[in-house]
Amino acid sequence: MILPILRWPDARLSTTCAPAVLSDALQALAEDMLQTMYAAQGRGLAAPQVGRLVRLFVMDIGWKDGARTPVAMVNPEVLRVSDERASGPEGCLSIPGPLTVVERAAEVRLRWTGLDGAAREEDFAGFASVCVQHEIDHLDGILTLDRIGPEARARAEAEVLA
Ligand code: NI
What we know:
Elements: H1 24-39, E1 44-46, E2 56-59, E3 71-81, E4 85-90, E5 100-105, E6 108-113, E7 119-124, H2 126-139, H3 150-161
Antiparallel strand pairs: 1-2, 2-3, 3-6, 4-5, 6-7
Bound molecules: nickel (II) ion.
């Protein structure tokens, strides 16, 4: 089922999400979120973007270039970040229009639970690193707009509200 995607400045996008509990309902939510993400031409989608304030996100960074490889992360945690920083333009399905350049750690190590209940740990670099940090930010109520300077934010807000 394709779900409506909340748009900034909806207050639910600025809320810290609660830990997710594995259940059939959570599985169904993850499936709906993937369907919603693909339909919206996105590469990542976090539960609060569809109004569910739990720590779950889905992503598939390469699907536009080949086969679909969907990933769902339940209760992801950042275990380590690199000192090296990287920045690039980021889009967000909840902030249609502007791409905002956000500085982040170049590499991160995450731990999360899969929908099968298994604990996983993995290092991410490149665009995957950007994507997981962007989605985890959503779970903490942080948007790209919150990570850029006031001038860039004012420009981006004007573009969204135009
Ligand atoms: Ni986003």
